[in-house]
Amino acid sequence: MVDFGQNAAAVPSFSFQAPEGTLLECNPSEILNDGNGAERRGMDGPEGSTHRRNLRVDPGEIWLTYTFSDCAGQFVDYQPRASFWGYRYISVTADQPVQFASISSVPVTSISKDMETGTLITGNESVNKLISNTLWGQRSNYLSVPTDCPQRNERLGWTADTQVFTETGTFFANTSRFFHKWMRDMRDSQNEKGGFPGVAPFAQYGNEKMRLGWADAGVIVPWTVWKQFGDKAIVTENWKAMEKYMAHVNETKYDAVALKEENGNYNWADWLSYEALESCSGRAFQNAETRAQAGEYWNYLGACYWALDAGYMRDMAAAAGFDAAKYEAMEADAKAYLKERFLQADGRFVLDVLNTMQTPALFALKLNLVEGEARESMLSRLRKNFEDHGNCLQTGFLGTSILMQTLTENGMADMAYELLLQRKNPSWLYSVDNGATTIWERWNSYMKDAGMGPRGMNSFNHYAYGCVCEWLWETAAGIAADPAVPGFRHIIMKPVPDKRLGHLEATYKSAAGTIKSAWKYEGDNCKWTFTIPRGATATVVLPSETKEYQAGTYTVEYK
Length: 559
Prior knowledge:
alpha+beta, five-stranded antiparallel sheet
C-alpha cells in the first residue's frame, strides 16, 4: 500500500526491477477500507485495503497490469501514458519479488504552474486546508474540460458544477483560454430551440437540455470570464448562442412543464442539499403532493436564473456594443413575475414549504425581491433556520454557490463566518476533520462514525462546494472585480475580517496587475494593508467610510 498524501487526477510512476515475466498489478483508490471492512459501513474489503466501490466499475477496470521484460539487472522506469486515475492510494502486488527505486504520483491537469494566479493564506490552519483542498479539486477537474470528478466511470463536463465554481477558479488560475475552449463544447451541444445541456461536451448521459442551474452555465461562464479577465472576446464568440438561449428562457419563463420535452419533466435543482424537495435523495418524489411542490419549486428557481441571466446579459451587452436595454427590461419582467407568482406581500412564499428552506430565501435576497419589513422578516426567518439546524447550512450545489455572498450583503456576515468555521455535518470543515485533501461531492461523503455516505454516487474529489473560496477572496480578503470596469481595472475592496481567522494574506495576479490584501488584528483593532496595481483604481469600503483610491500601497486601521 502506498499513500501519496494527496488525492489528485494523476498517474503512478515507477522505477523498479524484477525477473523477466514477473506480473505486477496496481489499483488506485481515494480512501482505504476501515471498520474491519464492515459492509454496514459501506466498505468493500479488509481493513487498510483500497476501497473501490465508489469507482462504479467491474473489478478488472481502472486497474494497471505490468509484465517485466528482461531488466538486465537495471532499474527501469514506467509511467502510464494513455490513461489517468483519480486517487490518493495505490495497492501494488506481484507474483515474484520486485525491487523499487521509487514510486511517485504525477498529477495531470490543464492548469499548468504558469497559469496559477492567486495565493490565499489565513491564520486558521483548517481554513487553509480547505483552500488547499479547493485548489487541488480545480487542478484535478480542469482537465481538457471542467469535469465533475476524475476517479469514477464518469469524468464529465457537468455544467452546474462548472458554473458554480467558475469565479472561484479564476482567482487561482487564468482560466480564460480554458473556457474559450469549453464554451465551444457548449455551443456544439446547444439544441435548435436554444437549450444548453447538463453535460458538455456530448457524453453518455447528461444531454437533457434546459435543466435549471445547469443550462445557465451557457451565460454565467462567459459573464464570469469577461468580468474577471476583461475578456470581451468570450462575449462576442458566444453572443448568438446566448441570445438564442435567452429567447427560449424568456418565452417559457423557465417553466418546468413548458420545457418537459427537453428536461424530461425533471430538474436536478439544489442538488445534494439537506432540504425538502431535494431531487437526488428522492425527497421531492415521496408522493403526489411533494412532486407537485417540487415542480413549483423548480419554477421558482428557474425564474430566479431567468432574472440572473438577464442581468448578466445586460452587463455583457453594454460592454460589447449590443442591446443592453432589451435585457434590462427582461430582468425587470423576470423579477416582477417572481414577486407576483411566488411571493406574498409580507415576504413569505406562496408555497409554504419554501418558507422552511434556506435556498429559496437566499435567491430572493440575492435578487432583491423583498424590501422593507418583508425583507427583515425573511432575514429573521433565515437566521432562525440556521439556528434551528445548529448553525449549519442545508444548501446544495445551487444554494451554496450564492450562500456566503448573499448573507454578507444582507447584514449576516457573522452567520457566514459561523458557517465557514462550523465543524459539524454538514459543513466545509467536517470534511477537513475527516481527512479530506480535496473537496467532496457530498457533505457526508464519509463519516468516521458511520463510514461511507450514499454509495451509488460518492466522489471525494468534486470541486463544486469549493465555491466558498470565492467568498474568501472577494469578501474576507476584499478583492472583487467591478462589472462596470471589468478585468480588475477598477476593484471593489470591501474586506470583512473576523478575529477567528487571526490574519489573512492574499495576492492575486489579476488581468490589471498584482493586487494584494493583508489584514491582522491587534487587540480590537484591525490593521489592513492593500496594494492597487499601476493603472487600476479601487473603491475601498470601510465601516466608517467609502473612498476612491489610485494605484499604490496603503495601510488603514479600524475597529
